[in-house]
Amino acid sequence: MADKAILLAGKTLDVVMPMIRSGRLPARQTDICHLPPERCASRMRDLLSINLGQLASLVEVSEDHPLRVAVTGASLRHRVPGFEFSTFPEEFPKGTLLEIAANILVPSFECYFLLKARDLSFEKLVLLGIELTGRFAHARMGDASTACEFLVDPVTTSRELSNYVEECAGTTGSRPARAAVSWVLDNAYSPREAVIALEQCLPPKRGGRGYPRPILNAEISVPPSLRHLVARDTFTPDVYWPELLDVEYDGGYHNEEAQVERDKARVADIQAMGIAVISATKLTLSTCERAELLGRQIGSCLAKGIGRPMRRRNARLDSLERVSERAALHARLMDAAGSSLSRGSARWDAPWGFAGDDGQA
To answer: Do residues 186 and 134 touch, judged by C-beta distance below 8 A?
Structure first.
């Protein structure tokens, strides 16, 4: 590496990191763990000496759209047309810095998660973590208002995110990052799957139900003793509580006739193994009231398998205060997932009574 380097930051990273994930912008890991101030390009002559190459064709750079660059010394934040500066620490955990071109560095996806903890709400940060560890990717990661691509490869795991956050304890953003990363679930196929799972497992103090944590889209082998009942050796439940319940989220493509038939056969096989199946759709999440009903149905199924401890937990969740907290969480999660809520006509008349969309309890 030459004496001077550019380390991308801020809004520039929001554009560049999705390109790296999609493979449009190759990145290789470096062994750089120390970036002293004198190695950071900050003067016009240093910045212009670095060949922006492919980056310049992908990221607009102008006075109105400056390239955001990090430096490791506050005194290096000069006024340079077309550039803005952020301050990063000099020391980085091993594996943090990636190189996308000669002398042009970006942080790892784990570091990007930590950096975004400075700006994002708890719910948006958890969903960003789930996006990084999942099988969907927005045009701008963590920005659900942008286009979403599905069936992409994860770029990290919840364990790797957690380990990185712990290694960076005490740095700016580490505290909210630690609070969020403990609820990041691996292998989500869509933001709405993540919403369903989070509303069940987040603790009541955060508006969740505090149910046992499900696993998402894990390949489950059919036990040999049950092979005679089903037409497959494995199945992949969407939101799964092992041996108890599978919540299947049916997206738009599930309405295709051939897919509908496959879904029916799949559900029949899962039920034949003694596992309850609940179907959820976009409509299920369209109002707080419908989401509340889904949560109650999930709780009822789990109680049948877990027994008295689960029934006691469900009873404690019935207060109007808890219901209101869950409704607020659902609204925040759906907003973070880029899905506006419909106005439902349902109302809660009492801790034990629900009036549905048709007005019937």
So the answer is: yes
Structural contact between residues 199 and 333, judged by C-beta atoms closer than 8 angstroms:
yes
Which secondary structure element, helix H or strand E, spans residue 184, and what is its range?
none
Burial class for 124, CB neighbours closer than 10 Å (0-12, 13-18, 19+):
buried
Q: In the block, which residue shows the tokens 């380990």?
A: 163
pLDDT at 53: 78
Q: Could you list the beta-strand ranges (E) of the chain.
A: 6-8, 28-29, 67-71, 83-87, 97-101, 104-107, 136-138, 148-150, 215-216, 220-221, 234-235, 239-241, 245-250, 276-281, 347-350, 353-355
Which residue type occupies 239? V
Query: In one letter, which amino acid is 310?
Result: M
String of b and e for 195-205 (b: at least 16 CB within 10 Å)? bbbbbbbbebe
Residue 263's H or E segment, with its range, is helix 257-272
- Residue 220 CA to residue 228 CA, distance in Å, equals 16
Cβ atoms 162, 177 nearer than 8 A: no
Cα distances from 12 to residues 50, 72, 154, 247, 287, in angstroms, run 17, 17, 21, 38, 35
CA distance between the termini of the chain: 69
- The helix (run of H) or strand (run of E) holding residue 108 is none
Predicted model pTM: 0.91
pLDDT at position 343 is 55
Which amino acid is located at 258 in the chain? Answer: A
Q: Which residues of the chain have pLDDT under 50?
A: 1, 345-361
Per-residue burial over 301-314, b if 16 or more Cβ lie within 10 Å, else e, is bbbeebeeebeebb
The string of DSSP codes covering 41-104 is: --SHHHHHHS--HHHHHHS--SSSSPEEEEESSGGG---BTTEEEEE--SB--TT-EEEEETTE
Could you give the CA distance from residue 299 to residue 211 in angstroms, rounded to a whole number? 8
Residue 200 contacts by C-beta under 8 Å, 6 or more apart in sequence? 208, 209, 211, 214, 239, 295, 298
